[in-house]
Amino acid sequence: MQSKKKTNVGITALYCRLSRDDGMEGESNSISTQKKMLKQFAKEHSLGNTRYYVDDGYTGTNFNRPGFQKMIEDIDLGYISTVVVKDLSRLGRRYDTVGYYTDTYFPDRDVRFIAINDNVDSDEGENEIAPFKNIINEWYAKDISKKCRSSYRIRGSSGEPLSFPPYGYIKSPDDPKKWVIDPEAADVVQDIFRMVLEGKGNETIAHVLQERKVITPTYYWIQKGIRKGGKKTNPDPYRWSYTTIEHIITKQEYCGDVINFKTYSKSYKNKKRLDNPPEKWAVFKDVHEPIIDRETFELVQKVIKKNKRRHPKPENGEKSIFADLLCCADCGSKLWHHTNSGNKDIHYFSCSNYVKDTRGTCNSRHYIRADAIEEVVKQELRRLAKYLEYHEDEFAELLAEKTNADMISEQKYLESELNRMKVRSQTVADLFVKIYEDNAIGKLTDEMFMQLSQKYELERMELKDKIFEYKERIAKLHEMEQNKDDFIKAIRKFMDMQILTAPMLRELIDHIDVYEKEGSSKHYTQRIAIYYRFVGYIEIPMESDYENYTADTRQGVKVEYLPTDMFPSQRGKSA
User: Fold this and answer.
1) Is 159:115 a contact under the CB 8 Å cutoff?
2) What fold, for 169-306?
3) C-alpha span between 31 and 25 (Å, rounded)
4) CA 404 to CA 536: how far, in whole Å?
5) Which single residue of 221, 471, 477, 575 could bond 226 by disulfide (Cβ 3.0 to 4.6 Å)?
6) Residue-wise pLDDT tens digits, 113-146
């Protein structure tokens, strides 16, 4: 192939990909070999400013690969002028998706595409053979998938463990197909089973392990240098969750068993793992040394079945219609629904992040009775409906003032910032081109070029995130404006029904903030802030005959529930 006499301003992306399946083809497809080939080709064809984009260990049937997605981002921002791959199969093994990129995406963005071994160069015009090669590449992926599934089925059916060793085991140094006990982690597993038999619940066990400074399985594997997938969402290495405890105490593998085919995928194009029903599992007993003897494991399963406290019980009544609507006004966490163990007729909510209940960070419980919050919300909705009925024009004006006053000022600010960031993003792109040209003609050293490139790259990513965020916020403002009429319709619907249902609540209310009680030991006040869908928090003028709702929470103790605008400590403040 001969290169066009065309000045390429921008990055030449050298894209390399290798999956485990491709690895069977030998060194010719290795990442290092691909890099050498692409670098040599770029040098011979005067394609400067090269940058590698690499996906090592990623299948060609899935295009959600980090290296590929980073390259696409840079193309969208105008940084890349040329993409070079070893062959079309490196770009991917789905003929429809590869065809989209080569026939539509790259040409629309004026990006030159070159597949060296397939003799494809978009500057040379269309290649009639390329679509057939894409189909062959997909057939290859399908064939490889069949062979891998067959091999997987044979290995799993022979008792070879197909999954990663669970916490407490490691692969044998002598035979990676065998599991051996990891003494340090196994001690923790045995301790967990012992605490279950002592009557401790999952949350209590998690609390005990956290106090003992026992690191979680995820961080244990990191500490030991063991590579294992999964998101590391919790930054605290000692914060055990009750779900982790539940996962450990229900794992039959601790008895020495191997259980294969617990999950499956639908096809080679869809890598999502789905749960297999137990009857399709392949169970092989006493394959490796047990951490927990079978009798203890079975006994723990009986304890679990007997003491499932977190699942709703029929005697506790139906789930509250306010579940997932109530939030802690101090920490923002959801309020959990509970049933009083001594009196099943009493249902209440409390902060899920309360420090004494869940090892959280919120210092107050934010207790509120379910029947109390229901009456408060009913009263507030009746007040809204009454105001709408007798003062419809004023109600519409109030909503307009509420939404417009907040929206106009915020929208102006957001649009101004968005325009400023768009201009700056274009400026950064222009600066990148400028420093590239200065580097090419020798006005800028390679070292200075790399420093400035990194600086502009960081700024570009920050601007991209901010632009996306501001566009989302502006879209929500427009949605709020468009849906004011829907809010009034929902109020009218409540006027007709006069009862609360879960669908009605979710049609009207976005969330409800519950504050901690204030006052004396005999008479408390508690502030409730209702945030409606589309319009947020609104203050309705008080009628002369309005009375706050007061509930007897227990003998001799009353709680008066006040709207936000009547709460003494909040007067003069915006909600």
Assistant:
1) no
2) Hect, E3 ligase catalytic domain fold (3.90.1750)
3) 12
4) 12
5) 221
6) 999 888 888 887 665 555 656 565 555 555 555 6
